[in-house]
Amino acid sequence: MTTPQALAFAVLAGTMGLFVWGRLRYDMVATLALLVSVGVGIVPPDKAFQGFSDDIVIIVGSALVVSAAVARSGVMEVALQALAPRIRSVTGQVAVLAGAVTLLSAFVKNIGALAMLIPVAFQMARRANTSPSATLMPMSFGALLGGLMTLVGTSPNIIVARVRGELTGEPFGMFDFAPVGVVIAASGMVVLMLGHRLIPQGRKGMATLDAALDIKDYTTEAHVTPGSVLVGASIADVHRFADGEVTVTTVIRGADRRSSPLPDMQLREHDTLVVEGDPSALERLIARADLKLTREDNTPDTAEATDEIGVVEAIVGPDSALGGQSAQRAELFRRFGVNLIAVSRSGQRFTERLRSITLQTGDIVVLQGNLTRLPDTLKALGCLPLAERRLRLGQVRRGFVTLFILAAAMTLTAFGVTPVAIGFFGAAAAMVAVGALPLRDAYAAIEWPILIMLGALIPVSDALRSTGATELVGVWLSHVGASLPPAGMVALVMLAAMAVTPFLNNAATVLVMAPIAASFARDLGLRPDAFLMAVAIGAACDFLTPIGHQCNTLVMGPGGYRFGDYWRLGLPLSLMVVLVGVPMVMLVWPLR
Question: Of 14, 81, 115, 302, which has the fewest beta carbons less than 10 angstroms from its beta carbon?
């Protein structure tokens, strides 16, 4: 092993260690990896920033804008709204919702497709008196499966196409992924429809105070007013007054704060109660006992009409400005003009003040503010609306214009009329030009941390190749793979990518694994296509944990899932991907 190779391996090991550690965000880890690579001499200074001009960055950024425009159109939601009242069985709900997300994820960002249809899933569950937990996890897994079908379905496909272009002079095309991806996605749908019973049933997510969605366990905060019937009453009286449906978790009296107060504690005027319960039960208690919800400010803006003030339920998204922040630190009312009036987190009971709760991805929050401004506020905060009355279906006419632009771009790129980067950059520009997506929202839709990570890791990944490190790993793998049958070789690569992805970003996994897989194939004297496809499939299919992919994280709170719930359905789905994916890859992309 040469010194440059040793340095390349050291940078790779350090990068993976920081990814697993998780204390630094992935874009910062990639930036540090690039700087260290330049510092130790494995990336020349004049090539340090070439990754930011790579077509991958343009394609991913453009695809995010296109995805946001399609999501805004609301066409898919309109179509599902017509079907929703007719679907009563859980299996039918899984088939329609997971199938819709799978199809949509082939063309738009998978987390965007999932976010569009989460409200529809809650509405279906409420109408059919079923639990949303039975459908949300299959929808998340369907979103991952859908990305396997096209070049722009997921970032790993784009990166693998680039690596193939460097090796053979011809990158994978728009629908080169479809023969394998469609079969895996269709097989996955069968597993999801049959396997949804493996998910713990009856789990409840969270809901709005107006009970638009019938979900449990909200925590809110209320003052005992001077005229309240609870003045002089005990905690036990409060429980009886609320028919046992509300729990007082904390009583705050001046500087005194009592968690889990005793049943005989008597309440006084101006006490603050932190209460937990069903949304409708909380609403009844507050109305009957003449309590007053606390907020960051004292009163709504008196210049606004009362009927313009309302509440909306939303999920704290993966890149939300609220993640890791409390309402007090985020200065919600001063900066955004909204109040936090309730919060819920799966499996956790809060005892601290509402304004002091540190919010996390997947938390459900109820925000109060001006109804005309709330949609834009939610976008600025990075939160996803859930309540049915806040579900914006968009304009169907404009939606069809958006779909026409998307179809035109995909047709031009599929037939080689224009490069993928140009086609999707043009589609993004056209959608903004026709008003399908405001310019401000277009910039907001771009996930800059992802682009920074890609731009920074591309030179680092290339350093593994230029120093010969990938060839060295390829030789090691070839010694292992030489004793395996051809299917075992492809399966080895797919399983390796699948095993690494929960600890790395899937795009980072492909940047590292794709050159190694290509070197592995070359050392065995085989064509690289099947191995590159195996890397793309393995990196895109992370079904075992809630932390490996943003889609899985997003549904954890609303579905009431626990960490250990994912493998129940995720393990058989992962086995299916390997059992179906390996022979399909070898059939479509022969090794020799």
Answer: 302
